[in-house]
Amino acid sequence: MTATTTASAASAADHIYATGMRNQWHPVVPSSFVAPGAMRKVTALGENWLLFRRSDGTLSMLADRCPHRGAPLSLGKHLGDRVACWYHGVEVEGDGTVASVPGLPGCNLEGKKLVRSLPVREVSGAILAYFGDEQHPEPAELTLPEPLTEPGTEAFLCYAEWNVPWRFAVENLLDPMHGAFLHHDSHTMYDGDTAAKFRIRETERGYFFEKTDQRGVNFDWVELCQTGVDWVDLSIPYPPSAGPGGAFGIVGMVCPVDEERCGVFFWRYRRVEGWQRDTWRFLYKTLIEKRHWEVLEQDRVMLEAMPADADQRENLYQHDLGVVRLRRLYKATAQAQAGTAS
What we know:
Protein name: Aromatic ring-hydroxylating dioxygenase subunit alpha
GO molecular function, one term: 2 iron, 2 sulfur cluster binding
Number of helices: 5
Pfam family, one: Rieske
Domain Rieske: 25-129
Largest sheet: 7 strands, antiparallel
Order of helices and strands: HEEEEEEEEEEHEHEEEEEEHH
Helix content: 10-25%
Strand order of the largest sheet: 11-17-16-15-14-13-12
Shape: globular
Number of strands: 17
InterPro entries: Cholesterol_7-desaturase (IPR050584), Rieske_2Fe-2S (IPR017941), Rieske_2Fe-2S_sf (IPR036922), VanA_C_cat (IPR044043)
């Protein structure tokens, strides 16, 4: 491998690390952002995309670029089962095939798949898309988080957009100890010691980062899961006054928007059925949800205040083992995807 090739591959790895891992699924936006018969421009993994939904609810995700002259398809018209570029009227179907060129019917563009189309799935109120590279165009196997699919679990999706690199948002979740300080005065976060020791426990789908000397009190553990989509799971004990269902769980995912922005998805869940489900929904919407938004806002304020090179000028200690493990994992993946792994 020449020096030029090595430098190019290293640059590609840096780009992947900055904008998100490929060959896996990522959340993009909440399903409610794209109404039936509507379309929406989104940015994900540093690229612009068009989401459009037919009147029957079928969803498609296309590169936001007309194959004719490169104009944004998101400025065009929704034609039911296709979109038409505003610039010259070129019509593109949901799978990226050019259906019609009104200015020159029968030209050689028609019938060709010239626009990149991504596989999409909708899960518990969110749109997930598979971002593969040229060597891995077919979608990876996807196993969804159990709390979002299993009967008897009620989940509410909370979505926000932060002006921080996507890695900072994921690292924040792999740092349970910040709950005892940043969120100390918040709902249910005041209990537990402010000193602790942690360990990493490997699993078949990722790893736990957990306190060794405290359990069932605060933000005591988090599990990173890689099941075709990266997600984290954690549990916070709730008092009886918070209603039925026992511990309160959170499933978290992060969408890399670009190098400086991300979208955060938090499903707040409890295992409840029947009348307990109705009670939990009522309590959450009338009392608890506001408090959770306040906690999320504390995270946003802290992370957005951190400099872009915060992860380059650190002095880490034992509580940061989960973050270190995460960084090594993503850097190795980025190098492999860029072809620089040894």
